[in-house]
């Protein structure tokens, strides 16, 4: 006979050892060790008056017939509780959906436009990875991570300094990494990996091409490669997601990475993928945004979906749920897969996709200015990434709980 306190408990009442596997039993055991013995005693006292002369007499003195009769009563009680539980309405599942809806509403076009403009301003000097402008951009992103409430990644390398993860042997600005912890409080170290912690990476590179020194003598010529679409737009989208997830409480940890030195051979991504501060086997998905604010206003390209686990299905479901008019073109440009920061991770078996737009006339030109971008498309793409991440997270939790 199962414990009558919870239909989920598989412990026999007569052999209950205080396992505390039932939520209700926890309270009972807090007041006294032998909840099961108390239940049996009450049942038998109603059926067999006078069996217990005092509270000190234990169930071990019962006859087999008395125990069987007590079991019958307890089974009836158990069945009644089961019926009551089944008749009760299911627990409210709307909480997580409401939090996601609230988070999505916080991804605002005007804030993305503001961040694109800041990163693409001439003061950033084109954000070249090995120049002062690149370091300035990294510091600005770290401050935005702090304002969004992101935590530092677990310190697995003595060279890590808060949000900054240097690229050894180089003069490049560091990768910038921030973490939104899972609601279970998982950590990003070996102990967490052993505890079946799971992560989703949301990434974008912040560096660009800097200043064209050959044009430096001509004051009339635009010589700063501002990189508004490439890739201030992706960083702005990532920052919008970071801000929006402050109160989301997903069951997996979100890792936000602003990669450095993408334009000079994916150096930042190659370093992190080669010496990851987490077990890459625990990464459910990587969603990399690189150029998400030009082209057609309702079209985004996704590359890598064929080998990305459930990411393709999650992106489609997310689009259908929140933005049915957004068109997704899957894997039209297969050659893009290894051209951006998801490439080194794909090579190591991480399910990863690139979200991007077609090349345009301002690609890798000084004319890639903020006023030419479409912050609305960047905002829609960012919401898509957040919603798909949420779906991947919830599905992972459901799988692990089985």
Describe this structure in words.
This protein is of the alpha/beta class and 402 residues long. It has two domains: 13-87, no CATH class; 94-401, Aminopeptidase, CATH 3.40.630.10. It has helices at 23-31, 35-47, 64-87, 94-105, 109-119, 132-147, 190-194, 228-244, 267-274, 311-322, 342-346, 375-401, and strands at residues 164-165, 175-180, 199-205, 210-211, 224-225, 253-259, 283-289, 299-303, 327-330, 352-356.
Notable characteristics:
402 residues, alpha/beta, Aminopeptidase, 8-stranded mixed sheet, two-stranded antiparallel sheet, 12 helices, disordered N terminus
Question: How do the strands and helices of this protein lay out in sequence?
Answer:
Blueprint: H1 23-31, H2 35-47, H3 64-87, H4 94-105, H5 109-119, H6 132-147, E1 164-165, E2 175-180, H7 190-194, E3 199-205, E4 210-211, E5 224-225, H8 228-244, E6 253-259, H9 267-274, E7 283-289, E8 299-303, H10 311-322, E9 327-330, H11 342-346, E10 352-356, H12 375-401
Parallel strand pairs: 3-6, 3-7, 7-10, 8-9
Antiparallel strand pairs: 1-2, 2-6, 4-5, 8-10
CATH 2nd-level architecture of the largest domain: 3-Layer(aba) Sandwich
CATH class of the largest domain reads Alpha Beta
Summed up, the domain count is 2
Order of helices and strands: HHHHHHEEHEEEHEHEEHEHEH
| Broad structural category | alpha/beta
Mean pLDDT: 80
Distance between the termini: 24 Å
The shape is globular
Give the spatial strand order of the biggest sheet.
1-2-6-3-7-10-8-9
Give the biggest beta sheet: 8 strands, mixed
User: What's the count of strands?
Assistant: 10
The helical percent reads 25-40%
Please count the helical segments: 12
Tell me the radius of gyration: 29 Å
- CATH superfamily of the largest domain, by name, is Zn peptidases
Any low-confidence stretches, pLDDT <50, length ≥5?
A: 1-92, 189-195
